[in-house]
Amino acid sequence: MPDTLTPFPASIDDIRAANARLDPVVRRTPLLSSPFLDEIAGRRVLVKPECLQHTGSFKFRGAWSAISALDPDVRAKGIIAFSSGNHAQGIAHAATRHGVPSVIIMPGNAPAVKIANTRALGAEVVLYDRETEDRDEIGAKIAEDRGLTLIKPFDDPLVIAGQATCGLEIATQAAEAGVTSADVLVCCGGGGLTSGIAIALEAEAPGLRVRPVEPVGFDDVARSLLSGRIERNDRVSGSICDAIITPTPGELTFPVMQRLCGPGVVVPEELCLKAMAEAFNRLKIVLEPGGAIALAAALYMPETVEGDTVIAVASGGNVDAPMFTKALAEL
Amino acid sequence: MPDTLTPFPASIDDIRAANARLDPVVRRTPLLSSPFLDEIAGRRVLVKPECLQHTGSFKFRGAWSAISALDPDVRAKGIIAFSSGNHAQGIAHAATRHGVPSVIIMPGNAPAVKIANTRALGAEVVLYDRETEDRDEIGAKIAEDRGLTLIKPFDDPLVIAGQATCGLEIATQAAEAGVTSADVLVCCGGGGLTSGIAIALEAEAPGLRVRPVEPVGFDDVARSLLSGRIERNDRVSGSICDAIITPTPGELTFPVMQRLCGPGVVVPEELCLKAMAEAFNRLKIVLEPGGAIALAAALYMPETVEGDTVIAVASGGNVDAPMFTKALAEL
């Protein structure tokens, strides 16, 4: 069977349908630039600031895509998700704006501010003990008791289609900026955003090549792309880029990345702090370390990128004041 | 003669023409919001983040509007401006992108980083000694010698028309958000942005009422609106809101504000630091103190605002790391 018939988790039609569902609510983020960043990188740099998206990260796109596609009767019973981070906030906000309940399962030792924020966005937060309790078991019981629908953070076709709407915007905005050929660097965890953008660009801007960007020591996607099979990180904690750390690429997302993405870029995490500082200084946006890693690659590892323009997706900005202050010391 | 025939510095047609000239280059800034800000203000808060504009403030709009309208032969000789701040950067960048020279006259004791940035944007910076030299004399001589065109920071019809394009966007975006009636709070110095937005909204969204916002001690516009004549500030330095401090409202901008704006709002400047912190935390944008003063009024002085929605224009983000770190301590 020819390659083009391989079933993809989301087709361009699925993505366009997700985009139509998102249209009344999504924030269409602009494409930012600064001659000062061009100077650092030695080429034109365009930045897609998804930190400006609702709840401060691209995750709202996937959450809205999945929740809005549910049968209304199913949706009314509510949503459940496992997350202590950006997915939690995206789901909570998207569910609340649909007027339906959401339950977020979080480890009891998650930062208090993340628990408080998720609750303030309208979710019920259920805490579990990482040492003694089984997260999946707790979630499955609550889901069954209440008839909730589980929405996974990346291995879900509707979530991938939602994140892909960011790629549709990049295609349009790059064309408006006269860019037909460039590397598109994407901060990569499980690969939902990366694979989604890749599918969108294959259809809408085939001269743009997506490349996943990860921190040193958590480069499961880069290694998986090299070996041709799913590789695992030795650990999933201990990085300032916590928002984009996952054990492995997703089962749905990896085949997409394998077919459509260029080689991964692996970045020392201290460069993320420098990129956060320049994003503050030149673009006036707030990035979290994991959300700055693609920009870090664009600015400080220009030898890994091809072409006279590079596009960096800045995936999120949920950072606390102490970490941001630390980044500003890089200026 | 009826009021409606009073000649305005810029008509809605002038503004639409400026908008067409800006269209290929201006950054169309989104309208941001957060349920957390709505909670603080007790009403819906919409924020227009002009910190995301080229050079970090709305000033690029007016600069481009004025430079792009010049006769090409005149423009080719170059532009001159007096500014140590956001107007300087807007002019430098707009001139450079037109491929024409610019000269910016700055006091010799301006911060080194502002001088360096203005030069890096392509301008020639001429420094003068505030104590012993006459700025206007120096500028006039250079302008005459080289045939440069002076562009003033606010009392220029083409500059006002350029800033007004921000108002056209607010009109469209407010309608998309279902808002037909609201106070629009605008950070106000000489009144170019405030009067421009007011003219645009009078034509495009007459239910939106513009109100200038200034810091305590520098409330020349608020007092002028009350007394019906141009009032002067006692001093023009010593505020963290330096970007929006001018001695008096403009001669062109004041009559517009007088006819179209609601009462001024006067804000203690320490509230700007709190608003900067919340803009960081909830909107993921970087604001300078003067650029945050309208948001400060929206969040912390809700009793001065009318209606169930308030729109705050966040006019600029050119702030250094120490001042921003100080603001983050408010969280």
Automatic annotation (TrEMBL), chains A, B:
Keywords: Magnesium, Pyridoxal phosphate. Transmembrane segments: none annotated. Residues 24-316 form the Tryptophan synthase beta chain-like PALP domain. SUPFAM superfamilies: Tryptophan synthase beta subunit-like PLP-dependent enzymes. It comes from the Bacteria. Its cofactor is pyridoxal 5'-phosphate; Ca(2+); Mg(2+); Mn(2+). It holds the Pfam family PALP. This is Threonine/serine dehydratase. The lineage of its organism: Bacteria, Pseudomonadati, Pseudomonadota, Alphaproteobacteria, Rhodobacterales.
